[in-house]
Amino acid sequence: MRQKILISALAALMLAPVALNAKTLRWASQGDILTLDPHAQNEGMTIAASSYVYEPLVDYDKDFNLVPGLAVSWEQPDDQTWRLKLREGVTFHDGAPFTADDAKFSLERAMAPTSNYKAYVNGIKEVKKVDDYTIDIITDGPNPILLRQLTNLFIMNKAWAEKNNAQQPQDFNANQETFSARNTNGTGPYKLESRDVDIRTTYVENENWWGKDTKPGNVTRVVFTPIKQNATRTAALLSGEVDFVLDPPAQDLQRLRQQAKIVEGNEYRTIYLGLDQSSPELKYSSVKGKNPFADARVREALYVAIDMDAIKRAVMRGSSLPTGTMIAPQVHGYDASLAERVPYDLERAKTLLTEAGYGPNELSFTLDCPNNRYINDEAICQAIVGMWAKAGVKASLNTMPRATYMPKIQNADTSAYMFGWGVPTFDALYTLQSLIHSKGEGADGSFNFGGYKNAEVDALIDNIKVETDDAKRTAQIQEVLKIHAQEFGHIPLHDQVIPWAMGKNVDVIHRADNRLTPQWVTIQ
Questions:
Q1: pTM (2 decimals)?
Q2: Do residue 227 and residue 340 come from a single domain?
Q3: Could you read off the pLDDT of 364-414 as tens digits, one per residue?
Q4: Is 51 within the bounds of a domain?
Q5: How many Å apart are CA 308 and CA 62, to the nearest integer?
Q6: How does pLDDT run across 290-312, given as a tens digit for each residue?
Q7: CA separation, residue 286 to residues 261, 283, 396 (Å)
Q8: Do 397 and 271 belong to one domain?
Q9: Which of 486, 443, 211 is nearest to 325 (CA)?
Q10: Number of separate domains in the chain
């Protein structure tokens, strides 16, 4: 009996350091997660939340190098086939084993009509099961970036999805409610404990996670709380109510640098304005019978009437990189000369509008803008509306939370809108195909809500999809960006610089995709 007591005591002592080291990470952002379905909404915060629970076949390390995820290796038997060997001994949170059936099902699910992840499955023709732990991904041509596309394609359990009638992704834009929108079953480092929309979402450590022994951080519980008001988010951090704020207000950064900790870096996200240039008549406008945005002179006028240096100084407090192109510096295909903005020129804006047939205050429309998605999004839009007014343009600002905003814009119910586009593949094709290619099948034009269209540009993008010569491919990317800029197909504003704020006892690894990774976080 005495020996059993001693053994129990020794076991307790051995476990004590782990228990003492277990930490809860309480963090906040201005808006809530949109859905828990991993293929329903291609939006940064939502993708981050999915990554706590679900895992991709191929992953990124902290420097965005490709590393094994649920696939341990890959090879190309031919230029249209990728063979992936899957990780054995992995289980889903409900205990079911992970196999090739789950990988094949998940990739095909991301290709479904209701999926918002078509940009990631671009070029995939077919997924074949070779054996229980091997799949072949067949592409419809050479695909030089397929592995990077796979980094955001999360793997679900096929049997769980079938049991809960979740074989298809939630149709988020149609306000569909599904089991997978509020429940999860992945293989990832954390399990969903509770979900209270717009109030709190809680995760607990997955004790059976295959990567637990190499986890660099000590977070065993994650509590996420959306806090819309800037002042309230800052106060919550300084009072110790939360440990981390993803989007600290720019006006509070100086105080936070003194009283907390700031870690910052450039994000791979470009903030831009889109304009409906394809509708016969512009929605939400006083101009009837035609579409003023179909005229490149009007689009140029709106561009040159925006003083981005003033917005950087007064709104962003210096934390932005004004740009004239649609991709950030980290993205393959970036050209610094294309990123130079056309100069701010109020008089030219007035002249262009006059030439297009619009006198002072004759052009009016609504600018839609989120108020809890991008850094200072509403304030930026307010500043732009004021600048346009100086050029004689009457724009009404319409702001709303992102849960309402995303379906509205994705249903093209807009005249002009703000959007932000990150590039998780770190390759410009992700932007060119989604934002600049005309609307077509699959990912083509899937986020081109304004209907920009140019046949030469479409042909170039189609070539970029399959071109394996890097020099030729880069030249084609830059030609697309050049033509698009000359036509003012969109109005790029700036690349985000993202500061993260946290308690002085919190250590994180800052990411260019603005994704907080709890398993990398250490709390002292």
A1: 0.87
A2: no
A3: 999 999 999 999 999 999 999 999 999 999 999 999 999 999 999 999 999
A4: yes
A5: 31
A6: 999 999 999 999 999 999 999 99
A7: 49, 9, 11
A8: yes
A9: 486
A10: 2
Name residue 141's amino acid. Answer: G
Return the DSSP state at 436.
I
* Alpha-carbon torsion, ordered 315, 321, 325, 329, to 10 deg: -150
Instruction: Quickly tell me which residue has 């005309």 as its tokens.
Output: 438
* 153 and 21 Cβ atoms separated by less than 8 Å: no
Reading the block at residue 158, the tokens are 């096929």
Q: What is the pLDDT of residues 240-281, one digit of tens each?
A: 999 999 999 989 999 999 999 999 998 999 999 999 999 999
Compute the CA torsion angle 211, 35, 30, 421 (nearest 10 deg): 80
In a domain, 382, yes or no: yes
Residue 381, H or E segment? helix 377-390
Query: Quick check: is 4 in a domain?
Result: no
DSSP bridge pairs for 321? 495
Q: Say yes or no: 471 and 512 in one domain.
A: no
With left for phi above 0 and alpha for psi between -120 and 50, is residue 492 left, alpha or beta?
beta
The answer to the question of residue 167 being in a domain is yes
Burial class from Cβ neighbours inside 10 Å (0-12, 13-18, 19+) for residue 412 reads middle
Q: What is the 3-state secondary structure (H, E, C) of 1-65?
A: CHHHHHHHHHHHHHHHHHHHHCEEEEEEECCCCCCCCCCCCCCHHHHHHHHHHCCECEEECCCCC
Q: Answer for the pair 365, 276: CB distance below 8 angstroms, yes or no.
A: no
Same domain, 236 and 376: no
For 315-376, the three-class secondary structure string (H helix, E strand, C coil) is CCCCCEEECCCCCCCCCECCCCCCCCCCCCCHHHHHHHHHHCCCCCCCEEEEEEEECCCCCC
| Cross-strand partners of 73 | 85
Report d(CA 335, CA 332) in Å as an integer.
9
- In the DSSP assignment, the letter for residue 269 is E
- Which residues span the domain enclosing 166? 20-260+503-523
Cβ contact 100:130 at 8 Å:
yes
Question: Residue 28 in contact with residue 224, Cβ under 8 Å?
Answer: yes
CATH number for 140 = 3.40.190.10
Q: For residue 258, how far is the Cα from the chain centroid?
A: 30
From CA 216, how far away is CA 226, in angstroms rounded? 26
